[in-house]
Design goal:
Layout: E1 2-6, H1 23-33, E2 38-41, H2 53-71, E3 76-79, H3 90-99, E4 106-109, H4 115-123, E5 128-139, E6 142-145, H5 151-154, H6 167-171, H7 176-188, H8 197-206, H9 208-215, H10 229-251, E7 257-260, E8 278-279, E9 282-286, H11 294-297, E10 310-315, E11 318-323
Helix pairs in contact: 1-2, 7-8, 8-9, 9-10
Bound molecules: manganese (II) ion.
Length: 334
Protein backbone atom coordinates (compact mmCIF):
# COMPACT_ATOMS: atom_id res chain seq x y z
CA UNK A 1 0.00 0.00 0.00
CA UNK A 2 1.32 3.42 -1.01
CA UNK A 3 0.42 6.36 1.23
CA UNK A 4 1.19 9.94 0.29
CA UNK A 5 1.16 12.56 3.04
CA UNK A 6 0.86 16.25 2.21
CA UNK A 7 0.12 19.18 4.45
CA UNK A 8 -0.63 22.88 4.54
CA UNK A 9 -2.35 23.35 1.19
CA UNK A 10 -4.04 26.50 2.58
CA UNK A 11 -6.59 26.32 -0.25
CA UNK A 12 -8.41 29.60 -0.70
CA UNK A 13 -5.56 31.73 0.61
CA UNK A 14 -6.62 35.37 0.25
CA UNK A 15 -3.27 36.34 -1.21
CA UNK A 16 -3.33 33.41 -3.61
CA UNK A 17 -0.24 31.74 -2.18
CA UNK A 18 -1.81 28.28 -2.44
CA UNK A 19 0.01 26.77 -5.40
CA UNK A 20 -2.66 24.15 -6.16
CA UNK A 21 -4.86 26.89 -7.63
CA UNK A 22 -2.35 26.81 -10.51
CA UNK A 23 -2.87 24.14 -13.14
CA UNK A 24 0.79 23.08 -13.35
CA UNK A 25 0.97 22.27 -9.62
CA UNK A 26 -2.42 20.54 -9.49
CA UNK A 27 -1.59 18.42 -12.54
CA UNK A 28 1.71 17.34 -10.98
CA UNK A 29 -0.01 16.29 -7.74
CA UNK A 30 -2.83 14.47 -9.55
CA UNK A 31 -0.32 12.61 -11.69
CA UNK A 32 1.41 11.41 -8.51
CA UNK A 33 -1.92 10.37 -6.97
CA UNK A 34 -2.64 7.93 -9.74
CA UNK A 35 -0.12 5.54 -8.16
CA UNK A 36 -1.29 6.15 -4.59
CA UNK A 37 -3.76 4.10 -2.51
CA UNK A 38 -4.20 6.53 0.35
CA UNK A 39 -3.74 10.29 0.60
CA UNK A 40 -3.27 11.92 3.99
CA UNK A 41 -4.16 15.62 4.16
CA UNK A 42 -2.27 16.56 7.31
CA UNK A 43 -3.96 19.80 8.24
CA UNK A 44 -4.50 23.38 7.07
CA UNK A 45 -6.02 21.97 3.91
CA UNK A 46 -8.47 24.85 3.62
CA UNK A 47 -7.65 28.40 4.73
CA UNK A 48 -10.47 29.18 7.17
CA UNK A 49 -8.55 31.59 9.40
CA UNK A 50 -8.38 34.62 7.16
CA UNK A 51 -11.92 35.78 7.79
CA UNK A 52 -13.37 34.62 4.47
CA UNK A 53 -14.18 30.93 5.06
CA UNK A 54 -17.02 30.79 2.48
CA UNK A 55 -14.82 32.17 -0.32
CA UNK A 56 -11.96 29.87 0.68
CA UNK A 57 -14.24 26.83 0.47
CA UNK A 58 -15.49 27.93 -2.97
CA UNK A 59 -11.89 28.18 -4.16
CA UNK A 60 -10.93 24.87 -2.55
CA UNK A 61 -13.75 22.94 -4.17
CA UNK A 62 -12.30 22.43 -7.69
CA UNK A 63 -8.93 21.42 -6.25
CA UNK A 64 -10.47 18.85 -3.91
CA UNK A 65 -12.63 17.50 -6.74
CA UNK A 66 -9.54 17.02 -8.91
CA UNK A 67 -7.74 15.25 -6.07
CA UNK A 68 -10.69 12.92 -5.46
CA UNK A 69 -10.93 12.08 -9.13
CA UNK A 70 -7.21 11.37 -9.42
CA UNK A 71 -7.37 8.99 -6.45
CA UNK A 72 -10.40 7.32 -7.97
CA UNK A 73 -12.92 4.89 -6.61
CA UNK A 74 -10.62 2.62 -4.65
CA UNK A 75 -8.67 5.52 -3.17
CA UNK A 76 -8.76 6.65 0.45
CA UNK A 77 -8.34 10.08 1.97
CA UNK A 78 -7.49 10.62 5.63
CA UNK A 79 -8.23 14.24 6.51
CA UNK A 80 -6.73 15.70 9.68
CA UNK A 81 -7.66 19.28 10.44
CA UNK A 82 -4.96 21.64 11.71
CA UNK A 83 -5.20 25.13 13.19
CA UNK A 84 -6.27 26.94 10.01
CA UNK A 85 -9.15 24.50 9.40
CA UNK A 86 -9.83 23.73 13.06
CA UNK A 87 -13.40 25.00 12.55
CA UNK A 88 -14.14 21.73 10.72
CA UNK A 89 -13.90 19.73 13.96
CA UNK A 90 -15.03 22.32 16.49
CA UNK A 91 -18.65 21.11 16.72
CA UNK A 92 -17.41 17.54 17.26
CA UNK A 93 -14.94 18.69 19.93
CA UNK A 94 -17.72 20.60 21.69
CA UNK A 95 -20.02 17.59 21.69
CA UNK A 96 -17.34 15.30 23.07
CA UNK A 97 -16.50 17.78 25.77
CA UNK A 98 -20.17 18.07 26.72
CA UNK A 99 -20.41 14.28 26.99
CA UNK A 100 -17.14 14.10 28.92
CA UNK A 101 -15.58 11.77 26.37
CA UNK A 102 -11.79 11.91 26.23
CA UNK A 103 -10.34 12.89 22.87
CA UNK A 104 -7.55 10.35 22.59
CA UNK A 105 -4.73 10.52 20.06
CA UNK A 106 -6.58 9.54 16.89
CA UNK A 107 -10.32 9.99 17.22
CA UNK A 108 -12.58 9.32 14.25
CA UNK A 109 -14.72 12.33 13.40
CA UNK A 110 -18.09 11.62 11.75
CA UNK A 111 -18.38 13.34 8.37
CA UNK A 112 -21.76 14.68 9.34
CA UNK A 113 -20.45 16.51 12.40
CA UNK A 114 -20.22 19.78 10.46
CA UNK A 115 -21.76 20.89 7.14
CA UNK A 116 -18.36 21.97 5.78
CA UNK A 117 -16.86 18.59 6.58
CA UNK A 118 -19.75 16.90 4.80
CA UNK A 119 -19.19 19.11 1.74
CA UNK A 120 -15.44 18.47 1.64
CA UNK A 121 -15.99 14.70 1.82
CA UNK A 122 -18.49 14.99 -1.03
CA UNK A 123 -16.06 16.96 -3.21
CA UNK A 124 -13.36 14.32 -2.66
CA UNK A 125 -15.58 11.58 -4.14
CA UNK A 126 -15.24 8.96 -5.51
CA UNK A 127 -12.39 8.55 -3.01
CA UNK A 128 -13.47 7.40 0.47
CA UNK A 129 -12.89 9.94 3.19
CA UNK A 130 -12.27 9.52 6.89
CA UNK A 131 -11.50 12.32 9.28
CA UNK A 132 -9.19 11.87 12.27
CA UNK A 133 -8.31 14.26 15.07
CA UNK A 134 -6.00 15.30 16.60
CA UNK A 135 -3.76 12.73 14.88
CA UNK A 136 -3.82 9.42 13.05
CA UNK A 137 -1.86 6.19 13.08
CA UNK A 138 -0.80 5.53 9.48
CA UNK A 139 0.70 2.15 10.25
CA UNK A 140 2.44 0.37 13.13
CA UNK A 141 4.63 2.95 14.85
CA UNK A 142 3.81 5.74 12.37
CA UNK A 143 1.92 8.65 13.93
CA UNK A 144 0.85 11.78 12.04
CA UNK A 145 -0.26 15.08 13.57
CA UNK A 146 -0.61 18.52 12.01
CA UNK A 147 1.82 19.88 14.57
CA UNK A 148 -0.13 22.89 15.82
CA UNK A 149 0.07 21.64 19.40
CA UNK A 150 3.73 22.62 19.42
CA UNK A 151 2.65 26.28 19.46
CA UNK A 152 1.59 25.76 23.06
CA UNK A 153 5.19 25.09 24.03
CA UNK A 154 6.38 28.24 22.30
CA UNK A 155 3.77 30.56 23.71
CA UNK A 156 5.14 29.92 27.20
CA UNK A 157 1.69 29.60 28.66
CA UNK A 158 1.88 27.97 32.06
CA UNK A 159 -1.36 26.08 31.47
CA UNK A 160 0.12 22.73 30.48
CA UNK A 161 0.60 20.23 33.29
CA UNK A 162 4.27 19.84 34.15
CA UNK A 163 4.30 16.16 33.31
CA UNK A 164 1.99 14.31 30.99
CA UNK A 165 -0.81 15.99 29.07
CA UNK A 166 -3.97 15.16 27.19
CA UNK A 167 -5.13 16.50 23.83
CA UNK A 168 -7.70 18.49 25.83
CA UNK A 169 -4.85 20.38 27.53
CA UNK A 170 -3.54 21.36 24.11
CA UNK A 171 -6.94 22.24 22.71
CA UNK A 172 -7.60 24.76 25.49
CA UNK A 173 -7.14 28.28 24.10
CA UNK A 174 -5.45 26.83 21.04
CA UNK A 175 -4.18 29.47 18.67
CA UNK A 176 -5.21 32.56 20.55
CA UNK A 177 -1.67 33.46 21.53
CA UNK A 178 -0.42 33.09 17.97
CA UNK A 179 -3.21 35.24 16.59
CA UNK A 180 -2.52 37.87 19.22
CA UNK A 181 1.15 38.00 18.33
CA UNK A 182 0.38 38.29 14.62
CA UNK A 183 -2.06 41.14 15.21
CA UNK A 184 0.38 42.91 17.49
CA UNK A 185 3.13 42.77 14.92
CA UNK A 186 0.94 43.85 12.05
CA UNK A 187 -0.20 46.84 14.06
CA UNK A 188 3.14 47.91 15.48
CA UNK A 189 5.51 47.42 12.56
CA UNK A 190 6.11 49.63 9.57
CA UNK A 191 5.75 47.95 6.17
CA UNK A 192 8.93 46.15 5.19
CA UNK A 193 10.10 45.21 1.72
CA UNK A 194 7.21 47.27 0.44
CA UNK A 195 4.83 44.62 1.74
CA UNK A 196 1.59 45.67 3.39
CA UNK A 197 1.16 44.84 7.06
CA UNK A 198 -1.40 42.11 6.45
CA UNK A 199 1.10 40.29 4.24
CA UNK A 200 3.54 40.34 7.10
CA UNK A 201 0.87 39.16 9.51
CA UNK A 202 0.10 36.28 7.15
CA UNK A 203 3.73 35.32 7.00
CA UNK A 204 3.99 35.46 10.75
CA UNK A 205 0.99 33.20 11.03
CA UNK A 206 2.45 30.64 8.73
CA UNK A 207 5.89 30.85 10.24
CA UNK A 208 4.47 31.58 13.67
CA UNK A 209 6.60 29.00 15.30
CA UNK A 210 9.83 30.60 14.25
CA UNK A 211 8.90 34.17 15.01
CA UNK A 212 7.22 33.60 18.34
CA UNK A 213 10.35 33.37 20.46
CA UNK A 214 11.50 36.61 18.85
CA UNK A 215 8.10 38.15 19.32
CA UNK A 216 8.49 37.77 23.05
CA UNK A 217 11.40 40.18 22.94
CA UNK A 218 9.67 42.73 20.72
CA UNK A 219 7.70 44.95 20.13
CA UNK A 220 9.22 47.25 17.60
CA UNK A 221 12.34 45.22 16.85
CA UNK A 222 13.07 45.01 13.13
CA UNK A 223 11.46 41.99 11.55
CA UNK A 224 13.49 42.01 8.39
CA UNK A 225 16.28 39.76 9.61
CA UNK A 226 14.06 37.12 11.23
CA UNK A 227 12.03 36.78 8.08
CA UNK A 228 14.60 34.93 6.09
CA UNK A 229 14.59 31.23 5.40
CA UNK A 230 17.98 30.76 7.04
CA UNK A 231 17.00 32.32 10.33
CA UNK A 232 13.63 30.58 10.30
CA UNK A 233 15.47 27.31 9.78
CA UNK A 234 17.72 28.05 12.73
CA UNK A 235 14.77 28.96 14.94
CA UNK A 236 12.97 25.84 13.85
CA UNK A 237 15.86 23.61 14.86
CA UNK A 238 16.39 25.46 18.10
CA UNK A 239 12.78 25.60 19.26
CA UNK A 240 10.45 23.91 16.77
CA UNK A 241 11.82 20.40 16.80
CA UNK A 242 12.21 20.25 20.59
CA UNK A 243 8.64 21.57 20.90
CA UNK A 244 7.30 18.82 18.64
CA UNK A 245 9.29 16.29 20.65
CA UNK A 246 7.75 17.72 23.81
CA UNK A 247 4.24 17.30 22.38
CA UNK A 248 4.76 13.64 21.56
CA UNK A 249 6.41 12.95 24.91
CA UNK A 250 3.67 14.74 26.91
CA UNK A 251 0.92 12.98 25.01
CA UNK A 252 2.61 9.61 25.42
CA UNK A 253 2.81 8.94 21.67
CA UNK A 254 4.90 5.80 21.29
CA UNK A 255 5.94 5.92 17.67
CA UNK A 256 8.98 5.12 15.63
CA UNK A 257 8.10 7.85 13.14
CA UNK A 258 6.25 11.11 13.79
CA UNK A 259 5.04 13.09 10.77
CA UNK A 260 3.95 16.69 10.99
CA UNK A 261 3.47 19.81 8.88
CA UNK A 262 2.40 23.20 10.26
CA UNK A 263 5.77 24.96 10.18
CA UNK A 264 5.99 24.67 6.37
CA UNK A 265 9.58 23.52 6.48
CA UNK A 266 10.25 20.13 4.89
CA UNK A 267 12.78 17.97 6.60
CA UNK A 268 15.07 16.52 7.45
CA UNK A 269 16.56 18.19 4.39
CA UNK A 270 19.85 17.20 2.76
CA UNK A 271 21.67 19.90 4.75
CA UNK A 272 20.02 19.04 8.08
CA UNK A 273 21.65 17.15 10.89
CA UNK A 274 19.57 13.97 11.06
CA UNK A 275 20.47 13.68 14.75
CA UNK A 276 18.38 16.79 15.50
CA UNK A 277 15.35 15.11 13.94
CA UNK A 278 15.35 12.31 16.50
CA UNK A 279 14.03 12.17 20.02
CA UNK A 280 14.54 9.03 22.07
CA UNK A 281 13.39 6.22 19.75
CA UNK A 282 11.36 8.43 17.42
CA UNK A 283 12.30 10.03 14.13
CA UNK A 284 10.58 13.25 13.10
CA UNK A 285 9.58 14.18 9.56
CA UNK A 286 8.07 17.39 8.25
CA UNK A 287 6.10 17.17 5.06
CA UNK A 288 6.66 20.78 3.96
CA UNK A 289 3.84 22.80 2.42
CA UNK A 290 2.01 23.79 -0.78
CA UNK A 291 2.34 27.53 -0.37
CA UNK A 292 4.57 29.82 -2.42
CA UNK A 293 5.87 32.45 -0.02
CA UNK A 294 7.95 35.00 -1.97
CA UNK A 295 9.51 36.49 1.16
CA UNK A 296 11.05 33.13 2.01
CA UNK A 297 11.82 32.02 -1.51
CA UNK A 298 13.32 35.17 -3.02
CA UNK A 299 16.29 34.05 -5.10
CA UNK A 300 15.90 30.42 -4.00
CA UNK A 301 15.83 27.37 -6.23
CA UNK A 302 14.65 23.85 -5.36
CA UNK A 303 15.46 21.66 -3.59
CA UNK A 304 14.77 24.05 -0.73
CA UNK A 305 13.07 23.32 2.62
CA UNK A 306 10.43 26.03 2.06
CA UNK A 307 9.80 25.20 -1.61
CA UNK A 308 6.14 24.23 -2.14
CA UNK A 309 5.27 20.66 -3.08
CA UNK A 310 6.69 18.76 -0.13
CA UNK A 311 5.32 15.27 0.50
CA UNK A 312 6.16 12.08 2.35
CA UNK A 313 5.69 8.70 0.76
CA UNK A 314 5.00 5.80 3.13
CA UNK A 315 5.36 2.33 1.72
CA UNK A 316 6.17 -0.93 3.54
CA UNK A 317 6.96 1.04 6.69
CA UNK A 318 9.60 3.11 4.87
CA UNK A 319 9.33 6.89 4.59
CA UNK A 320 10.67 8.87 1.65
CA UNK A 321 10.56 12.68 1.42
CA UNK A 322 9.56 14.05 -1.99
CA UNK A 323 9.65 17.47 -3.61
CA UNK A 324 6.82 17.08 -6.10
CA UNK A 325 7.10 20.58 -7.56
CA UNK A 326 10.88 20.78 -7.74
CA UNK A 327 10.79 20.26 -11.51
CA UNK A 328 7.86 22.57 -12.23
CA UNK A 329 8.64 25.98 -13.73
CA UNK A 330 8.59 28.38 -10.72
CA UNK A 331 6.75 30.97 -12.83
CA UNK A 332 3.80 28.58 -12.93
CA UNK A 333 3.64 28.50 -9.11
CA UNK A 334 3.00 32.17 -8.35
MN1 LIG B 1 -0.74 25.01 10.81
Amino acid sequence: MRTLVISDLHLGSRLRRDVLRHRAALDRLCHELEGVDRLVLLGDTVELLEGRPRAALVEAQPVLRAIGEALGKGGDVVLLPGNHDHALVRPWLRERRARGEPLGLAGRVPLKSSPDLTAIARWLKPARVQVRYPGAWLGPGVYAHHGHYLDRHLARQPTLPTSGATPEDYERALGTSIAAVGALMAASLPPILGEPADRIAGLIRLAGIAVLPLAASLPGAPLLAPLSAGVLGFQFRRVGLPAMAAVTARLGVEAEHVLFGHVHRAGPHADDDAYEWRYRDARFWNTGCWVYEPLLLAGATPPHPYWPGGAMLLEDGELTPLGLLDDVDPRALR
